[in-house]
Amino acid sequence: MFYIASMVGDTYPTVDAFTSYVDSTCVPAFETYVGKVYRDSTLEITWLYPGSDGWNAGDRTVECSVYDPNDSRLTSSLGSTRR
Q1: Which residues contact 1 (CB under 8 A, 6 or more apart)?
Q2: Confidence at residue 57, expressed as pLDDT on a 0 to 100 scale
Q3: Which of 3, 12, 65, 70 is the most exposed place for a label (fewest CB within 10 A)?
């Protein structure tokens, strides 16, 4: 997990809205965390967001994680790896 953000709004977002939010918040944070621009990296971003029940209960948290698609077993942090 390299970035945790909180969306705003009353209506549960569409998948496209969540994706757009990740693009505008997690992608810039990726560069800060990894030390390389996301589009030039071999690493990938994945994210978790609340389901509609969680959203209706007040959860607006979007959690962004980084992973190496070529390495199924992470043994150290990917922070500051410039990968």
Answers
A1: 63, 64, 65
A2: 97
A3: 70
